[in-house]
Structures are given as structure tokens and as C-alpha cells.
Write a structure and sequence with these properties.
about 425 residues, mainly alpha, two-stranded parallel sheet, 20 helices, 2 strands
């Protein structure tokens, strides 16, 4: 006997719908801060009312309707109210705010979350502000989580988000995705120089969108704080949105590469934690629990992208993940191939995280001492200084090198730096194991 799948928990549903509702309000009204406040009020109203009155047949439409009312209340003056209501009525399909008949649903004609992604990644915002604002609006991350993800102080991140919101409020711009904007702009202006400038703007916007989706996925795959190692809702939403971007731009190799990277990484999710929620490192995971369908899809995506599109960092990261996923066991991992891929990656993106991964690959091929020399160069990096991942890698390499006392101290230091409970317990257990 089969049973219908249960509805998602209201909290998960609200988290998933929040960026869609915000995107809908921004597309219709603008006013980023006011729209964000209105969405939060609508979410609170849903959290109070739905458990008692039942979930509406069209939760998204209900939230948009309630948030729109809150927003028009905030913006109301007689003349302004009439103008906004007339504009909203003209722009909004009638079924957007009306629950569908019983048994019927309505898929939105446009994914407002995707629209919100490209809105936040506008060219007239500083790059750091674009990424921070998108993580806040689309990813639902707190300012502290964004700061940790981007390796900057929380106060600095709060300022970036505030400045980005002010810029959006004072300088309206189109809300469309790159393909839509390109069509409209090409119809309006055909001059070659202007088209090249627009192409550069679209490329920069897309790069920011992909970067934000990558950060949202990373926070979902390994939460930077809290009692749980993973936030599956964030990782799943990042994959969904990346699929949408890939569908929008099927010939873009980096969009395909990022989707492949997410699928190949998320395929290991079930094996990453033990029954008690403890962290299980890659080398010790039960590979029979990996999602082979996701691995096959990811390998096909990155293989296709590598053969027909310009090489990019996400494709390289996906290729590295594919080498791990296709190995029958940890001892079968082709570390020489991984090192070769990292050598190319660090030339394209010589960032601290990439250099950290490169050091691990060097250790597996050439030994830990050479890799420890590479880590020493990262000690002065402003982004990684005092970060637990640097100390955790150092501890692993010292353990490989047989320096047990130094490894134990580095594991203990890393444990003291992380805000993730499962990571802290794992690092503490490694230190304790060496002490035995």
C-alpha cells in the first residue's frame, strides 16, 4: 500500500518561499528595505496563522498578498497609494493573489527567486555588495554567516549589505535575467561598442550569481555554525536555482560546471554523518551510500562542458570532485590527476581556499613536508589567518608527517576556532586519538 508523500514542514516551506515572495514584491514595487520588512511580517503571520487555520492552497500567493498589503501600508499616502495600486494591478496576473480552485496548482510563470538573484547582482553595485546582498536576500543567511563564508569581519559585512540596499533604493535598474535583458537591449541598440559593454556586464553579473549560488550551497553542505553539520534545505535550493541558471544559459560552461560540482559533492551527503550526527571524513565514508545517479549526471555535465566550452574554475572543481567520486575506495583515488587539476585551478584562481586544497593534493603525491611549506605561506593571508580550516589541514599534514605533538596542538587549536559543533567534536576526537 502506498501513501502520499507528506507536505514539507511549514518552516521549510516558508524558508523556500521567502526569496520568491521578495523577488515578486521587488519586481512590482521596488523599495528593497520596505519589501524585505513586508516579507518578514508576512512570514511571521504565516507562522502564527497556518498551524491554527491550515495551510492555504496557494502558499506563495497568500504570502505575496499579505506582504503586498504590508508594503502598501508602509508606502501609503493618498496619491502614492493610488499610483502604486494601479501599477501593481496592471503588472500582476489576477491568479497571482488568488488561491487556485481545489485540486489545482499554478506554477509561477517566472521564477522570482531567479529574478531576485540577477537583481541583486546588478552591475552598478560593488562586487562585494552584490554577493553579500544576494546571500542575504536569496540564501536567507544571517550577516554573521555571510561574514564567515566570505572570511571578513561581521561589522564589515553589515556595512556592505546596508550600502547595497541604499544603492538599489536610489538607483533603479532592470530586474530581468541576462538573456531577457540582452533581447531588450539588442532590440533598442545595435551599436557594437555598446553591445560589447553590455556583454561584459552580463558576464560579470552571471559570475556573481554563480559565486553566490556556490556559497549558498557550501553553507548548506557544511554549515559554518550550529549543531548540525549540514543544512540540506540550503544545498537543495542552491542546486535547484543552479539548474534554472543552466537551463537559461545551456551553453555556458561555468553554469554547467557549477551544477556538476554541486551534484558530485551533494551525492556524498548521506555518508557524511554517522547515526549520532558526527562528521565522517571522506576517506572513511561508506561509498555504497553515495548517490550514483547524481554522480553520473555530474560527470556527464562536466565532461560535456570541458570538451566544448572555455575552461573555468567551476569546471575544474567539478573535475576534482568527479575523480573522488569515481574512485572505488579512498586508496584508489587518483591523487596525481587531482594535483594536476589543482595546478591549473590555482593559476586561474589563486585564492586561499584553492591553495589550501592544492596543498592537500601536494601532500598526497609528494609528501606532507612539501605541503607544510605551502601552508606556511598562507599564515599571513588575511582571509585564512585564524580560520579553523587552515589549522585543521595543518594538523592533518603534521599527523601524516609523524609529528604527533604538533598535530595534536593544531587539532585542538582548530577545534577552538570553529563554530560548528560536529566539526569541533571531530577535531577534538582527532586530537584525543593522537594523545592515546
Amino acid at each position: 500500500m502506498t501513501h502520499p508523500a507528506p507536505e514539507p514542514a511549514s518552516e521549510d516551506l516558508l524558508r523556500r518561499l521567502a526569496p520568491q515572495v521578495l523577488g515578486a514584491l521587488l519586481r512590482r514595487y521596488g523599495h528593497f528595505d520596505a519589501a524585505e520588512d513586508a516579507v518578514q511580517e508576512a512570514l511571521l503571520a504565516a507562522a502564527r496563522q497556518w498551524p491554527e487555520e491550515g495551510r492555504p492552497r496557494n502558499p506563495r500567493g497568500w504570502l505575496i498578498r499579505v506582504a503586498s498589503r504590508r508594503l502598501t501600508d508602509q508606502l501609503r499616502s493618498e496619491d502614492a497609494r493610488r499610483r502604486r495600486e494601479e501599477t501593481a494591478a496592471a503588472l500582476t496576473p489576477r491568479d497571482e493573489f488568488v488561491a487556485p480552485p481545489p485540486g489545482e496548482g499554478r506554477a509561477p510563470a517566472e521564477d522570482d527567486t531567479l529574478t531576485l538573484l540577477f537583481l541583486c547582482c546588478r552591475a552598478d553595485l560593488p562586487a562585494a555588495g552584490r554577493i553579500a546582498l544576494t546571500l542575504r536576500a536569496v540564501g536567507g543567511l544571517t550577516t554573521a554567516e555571510i561574514a564567515r563564508a566570505l572570511l571578513v569581519p561581521e561589522a564589515t559585512m553589515a556595512q556592505r549589505i546596508s550600502r547595497a540596499k541604499r544603492r538599489i533604493r536610489t538607483s533603479p535598474s532592470p530586474f530581468g535575467t541576462p538573456a531577457e535583458t540582452a533581447d531588450r537591449e539588442q532590440e533598442q541598440e545595435q551599436e557594437q561598442e555598446q553591445e560589447q559593454e553590455r556583454e561584459r556586464e552580463r558576464a560579470a553579473r552571471l559570475a556573481d550569481v554563480l559565486h553566490v549560488l556556490y556559497l549558498i550551497f557550501n553553507e548548506g553542505y557544511t554549515a559554518t555554525s550550529g549543531r548540525e553539520l549540514q543544512r540540506a534545505d540550503l544545498a537543495t535550493e542552491a542546486i535547484r536555482l543552479t539548474r534554472a541558471v543552466h537551463a537559461l544559459l545551456p551553453d555556458d560552461g561555468e553554469a554547467a560546471g557549477l551544477l556538476a560540482l554541486m551534484l558530485l559533492t551533494d551525492a556524498r551527503r548521506a555518508a557524511r554523518t554517522g547515526p549520532d550526527g558526527s562528521l565522517v571524513p571522506l576517506a572513511e565514508q561508506d561509498r555504497t551510500r553515495w548517490d550514483r545517479d547524481a554522480i553520473a549526471e555530474g560527470v556527464a555535465l562536466v565532461s560535456d562542458a570541458l570538451t566544448r566550452t572555455p575552461l573555468g574554475p567551476y569546471q575544474l572543481r567539478a573535475a576534482i570532485a568527479a575523480v573522488h567520486d569515481e574512485a572505488a575506495g579512498d586508496e584508489d583515488t587518483d591523487w596525481a590527476e587531482i594535483l594536476a587539476l589543482y595546478e591549473v585551478l590555482v593559476r586561474l584562481v589563486p585564492g586561499p581556499v584553492e591553495r589550501l586544497g592544492h596543498a592537500v593534493a601536494v601532500a598526497m603525491v609528494h609528501g606532507p613536508r612539501r605541503a607544510l611549506d605551502l601552508l606556511a605561506a598562507l599564515d599571513d593571508d588575511d582571509h585564512l589567518a585564524g580560520h579553523h580550516r587552515l589549522e585543521a589541514v595543518r594538523a592533518h599534514l603534521l599527523e601524516m608527517a609523524g609529528d604527533r605533538a604538533a598535530a595534536r596542538a593544531a587539532y585542538a587549536k582548530a577545534a577552538g576556532l570553529t563554530l560548528s559543533t560536529p566539526e569541533r567534536r571531530y577535531l577534538q576526537s582527532r586530537a584525543a586519538r593522537i594523545a592515546e
